């Protein structure tokens, strides 16, 4: 007689075996009616779009305009109303040098010119008198009324008076005044253009000399300066629109090739190029590294897919195109490549679906189950 406990143990074992069998069956991949496994895949639909391949020229950002401020006259600095980062307009005061000594010199020069004018006026009077006397003596000498010595003396006095009158005393005084006034004007240093102060190395009370004490830049527009390799020179021409990437400024910018040197740089063997970029918010700063992207090839309205969908077998590039619940293995012809995308020139039409995940487990006419599509 079988005990109740033995029956219970046998029943539990049978139930456990049933659970294991069902669990094993549920973990298997789907199969078709012939027993072949259906491969789970992700698919995508082929679409037409634009694609281009680029080459990159590295460069640096440079200011559109930059000037070093060097005082034209030495002197004690009286005022510096701007600092680094100050936005300035053309004509705004940057540095004022004390002109006390120059003002004194100007006053003295004006007095000197007045004296020179008086001296000149007297010289003109003396000349007129000497000329009249010489003409009179010359007539008397012709009549034999005066001696040759008297005539020669009158002539000498005439020539001396003429030389004195022609002395540039007034002109010299005027030149001196103009020179001092120019120096006074040079003591007021203003911005030569709209921009902002980039550097400053002088303060009020310090002595200014003939060395740079400040710099001003205009970066409302900037230049990207780079060098184009000889192999890429055919892709570049002045006026061409290009894309510029500056990671430090956090983005991509549009620019225009402004200049392209016809002569290679002897050091780099490349051709210097300058790209002009509008910079109204001044995100682009001089010295930042930049990449100029030059378009090598471009095509519109062509079939483009992600490169990862391709399976490479020898020299063949293969796509698995969805046909119902199975796939068709196709050798395709590719064209332009751009980062993670590639053009399909032949072998895939817009609207067809193809496998982008799970393709490495496939073969021609393999059956599939679609996990997802995009």
Could you characterize the architecture of this molecule?
The protein is an alpha+beta fold and 374 residues long. It has helices at residues 4-27, 100-142, 148-165, 169-186; strands spanning 39-45, 47-69, 75-79, 87-88, 93-97, 188-190, 195-200, 207-208, 214-228, 241-246, 251-260, 271-278, 289-306, 311-313, 316-323, 326-331, 333-338, 341-346, 353-357, 368-373. It folds into four domains: 39-46 and 310-373, conserved putative lor/sdh protein from methanococcus maripaludis s2 fold (Beta Barrel), CATH 2.40.420.20; 55-61 and 218-298, Elongation Factor Tu (Ef-tu), domain 3, CATH 2.40.30.170; 67-98 and 186-216, OB fold (Dihydrolipoamide Acetyltransferase, E2P), CATH 2.40.50; 101-184. A hairpin with a 2-residue loop joins strand 17 and strand 18 (341-346). Helix 2 (100-142) packs antiparallel against helix 4.
